[in-house]
């Protein structure tokens, strides 16, 4: 018999898959139960409301992303960190060559956070981890005022990822765009 935390995690994983496949509107208790391989009663037992399901799914995603991006940021402390290493980190962030439901779900959840302010704190936590990684990379590359520019770098990554999602553009386009921007100084952009 599965442990309650395993059932809860199966439900959260199912919610993220459903969101990635068909969007937030497709998240129903029946579909979650089927996708997770649990009873309908298990879904309602573990999550009383749809908001709670979405919030916990976003928080789970945020915890994983924060752990991953904080680890990448911690790896950017080597004094010998160069543009090649930055390109490798950006390629890891870009997430490979194909978008699957796991890559699409966060965009859906962030859009939902725009609609539901109760989800915004969880989304802000994840963006703080992205900003930390961006600031560390920019610092190591000698980019002036890295903390101020980190949010813009993260926005570029998200925009490029959204473009990849919508057009099928390769991950290399994102890496190339970021590398070009890191070579610009404030006087070159004025």
TrEMBL record:
<dbReference type="InterPro" id="IPR050109">
    <property type="entry name" value="HTH-type_TetR-like_transc_reg"/>
</dbReference>
<dbReference type="Pfam" id="PF17940">
    <property type="entry name" value="TetR_C_31"/>
</dbReference>
<protein>
    <submittedName>
        <fullName>TetR family transcriptional regulator</fullName>
    </submittedName>
</protein>
<feature type="domain" description="HTH tetR-type">
    <location>
        <begin position="5"/>
        <end position="65"/>
    </location>
</feature>
<dbReference type="InterPro" id="IPR009057">
    <property type="entry name" value="Homeodomain-like_sf"/>
</dbReference>
<dbReference type="Pfam" id="PF00440">
    <property type="entry name" value="TetR_N"/>
</dbReference>
<feature type="DNA-binding region" description="H-T-H motif">
    <location>
        <begin position="28"/>
        <end position="47"/>
    </location>
</feature>
<dbReference type="InterPro" id="IPR001647">
    <property type="entry name" value="HTH_TetR"/>
</dbReference>
<keyword id="KW-0238">DNA-binding</keyword>
<dbReference type="InterPro" id="IPR041583">
    <property type="entry name" value="TetR_C_31"/>
</dbReference>
């Amino acid at each position: 018999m599965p442990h309650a935390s395993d059932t809860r995690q199966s439900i959260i994983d199912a919610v993220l898959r459903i969101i990635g496949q068909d969007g937030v509107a497709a998240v129903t208790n029946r579909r979650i139960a089927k996708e997770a391989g649990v009873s309908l009663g298990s879904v309602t037992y573990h999550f009383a409301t749809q908001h709670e399901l979405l919030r916990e799914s976003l928080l789970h995603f945020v915890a994983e992303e924060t752990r991953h991006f904080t680890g990448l940021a911690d790896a950017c402390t080597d004094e010998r960190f160069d543009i090649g290493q930055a390109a490798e980190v950006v390629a890891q962030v870009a997430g490979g060559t194909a978008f699957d439901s796991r890559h699409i779900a966060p965009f859906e959840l962030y859009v939902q956070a725009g609609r539901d302010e109760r989800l915004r704190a969880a989304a802000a936590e994840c963006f703080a981890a992205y900003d930390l990684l961006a600031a560390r990379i920019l610092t190591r590359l000698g980019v002036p005022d890295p903390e101020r520019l980190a949010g813009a770098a993260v926005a570029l990554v998200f925009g490029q990822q959204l473009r990849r999602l919508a057009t099928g553009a390769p991950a290399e386009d994102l890496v190339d765009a970021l590398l070009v921007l890191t070579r610009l100084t404030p006087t070159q952009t004025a």
